[in-house]
């Protein structure tokens, strides 16, 4: 039995929602993964009379495809879609059976208009929380358009293929045999990358907003909801809705929610915002802000949005080390997500740069997967919480190097080592390893503001206790500000504060 009783109970409820028959074509060998895959599909067939199983030969073994009885849909799982990918399997069964995907009609129309043959391959790990978004988006495209097909490939089940293609980060997507992209991508982002994006002209000539929120993370979502509830014209423009929490796996300090995952929280935020009359403009990056009679925000697509007030909530991104080799070997051994990419380094030596909470947590997680972890900390002591340090030092396959400065990440076509300097002696040392995980904090996404808004020397927007900046009518919230603590719950509160501050400004002006 592959599925435990609790999962089977939940799955049984979903399978009752199937609208038509589904045929699972299975290509299996004599290996352990094949045996488990056969057990899974046969277990699914016993749970619903709508699911049929047929043994065949597919391009990869072990794998299985999800089809209608009379039609190949092009959805294939090479590997066992459990862990984070279990939802991808459930949605594939429902959508292939005829249940409509929960996608905006505008997006559905875009997918159906795509001409030409497109075969996507996504390389994933079952512990990756970003991978399901890509897998599910590509599956939806395959269901909607007969010219599109998609195969999900579990890197753990196809190690030789992953190494042959030099894949060192997940998700990594290939299109018609050529590299297409890596990292989390939404359906909208994939369409944009294919040249099928929504016409940018629709953002031009919009009526001025009362409140325009720039950024779609926790702070931006909170600000938009608070503004919309006041009954004023509200817009939100975001590079990717959800922001940094999309890259966060476990969230355990969001009060009243014992545990959740970043992508799930991001989806909840977007769903909540869309409950109100908010003009959501996703996949758009702000380029310039200027105060005139109204406040103007120019987007990179050339459109100019106007508003009486603006709330900046552009968040932050992972800070780079800034040493030779980091940019050159990104996704070729240099990684930023231990949960996503850690399994690709199973049995190998890796380093973690950073001794704060995120760095030590990464090292602890990686120690259970890789052969050995070396932690490099610039200061003379680790900054992580003592409970995390105690756990770290108890692990037999971890070395902690303090008071060292990373000098270079070395390699040829991929990472082969790291060079650091002992700060007290000035002596350079080199370690041979396969991967480097960078965990050294955040940098605010405020470069585009130039000198228009007052910022700290670290680039953080300076705000008062109403969320107001030095420019009348411009407010800011969240991790892009000089708030001393970068936490989801604090960002949400500051978003509400900035929105109420903006509303008060509108009343007084």
From TrEMBL:
Which InterPro entries does the entry mention?
AhpF_NTD_C (IPR044141), AhpF_NTD_N (IPR044142), Alkyl_hydroperoxide_Rdtase_suF (IPR012081), FAD/NAD-bd_sf (IPR036188), FAD/NAD-binding_dom (IPR023753), Ferredoxin-NADP_redctase_2 (IPR050097), Pyr_nucl-diS_OxRdtase_2_AS (IPR008255), Thioredoxin-like_fold (IPR012336)
Among PROSITE patterns, the record links this protein to:
GLUTAREDOXIN_2 (PS51354), PYRIDINE_REDOX_2 (PS00573)
Cofactor(s) listed in the protein's UniProt record: FAD
Every copy of the Thioredoxin-like fold domain together lies at 125-193
User: Keywords on this record?
Assistant: Disulfide bond, FAD, Flavoprotein, NAD, Oxidoreductase, Redox-active center
What is the annotated signal peptide range for this record?
Answer: none
Highest taxon of the source? Bacteria
Domain FAD/NAD(P)-binding: residue ranges: 209-488
UniProt key word Oxidoreductase: yes
Can the keyword Flavoprotein be found in this entry's annotation?
A: yes
What family does this chain come from, according to its entry?
Belongs to the class-II pyridine nucleotide-disulfide oxidoreductase family.
Q: Subunit details for this protein?
A: Homodimer.
Q: What is this protein called?
A: NADH dehydrogenase
